User: Fold Beta-phosphoglucomutase from Enterococcus faecium.
Amino acid sequence: MFKGVLFDLDGVITDTAEFHYLAWKKLGDEIGIPFDRSFNEQLKGVSREDSLTLLLAHGKKEEQFSKTEFLELAKRKNDYYLEMIQSITPKDVFPGILELLKDLRANNIKISLASASKNGPFLLAKMDLESYFDAIADPAKVANGKPEPDIFLLAAKEIGLTPRDCIGIEDAKAGIAAIIASGAQPIGVGRSEDLGEDIPIVPDTASLTFDYLKKTWQPNA
Assistant:
């Protein structure tokens, strides 16, 4: 039996993806870089700084900003995003997630957040979910973002487990790759065309039940 579950946040617990898109688009407009939904797909699951690097490369403006200006741009995007997510409430938790968290706690399964978002604690608090989490992996403490495994390694460590004893839940290809690289067992939320044919996948979070997690778990995989 697995001993821990490592959750991504965006697209698994709630959806702030639209707010990220609007915030990046606003910044892109301000610095003269076209930003559309197609390019936005490349930023899913990617850290803020790495996303900004991709955006500047997309606009061929990597050399136009100093390190200080780069950090100011990253902060500006986050300020836009934070302004937009003030409206999030417990009603924005995806279907089935609260029930899953309750079942995991009732069965003494450790729960950790493995999100690239530095706003994870704020968002969990807005949705009244922070009490269900035993740990929140701080993305500022990892050297590499997804698809590297660092955040999932830290998320498992923070709850005193090795990834081999954990299930990781993700909705992005980069996140699935990070889970697999960490040694945890992945479950994808979405479509196999996007996430991979050889892993357990549910079409939506309502299908993420404790029973489903138990059925997909492969001891000593």
Summary: Residues 156 and 162 are 6 Å apart (CA to CA). The chain has a mean pLDDT of 95.
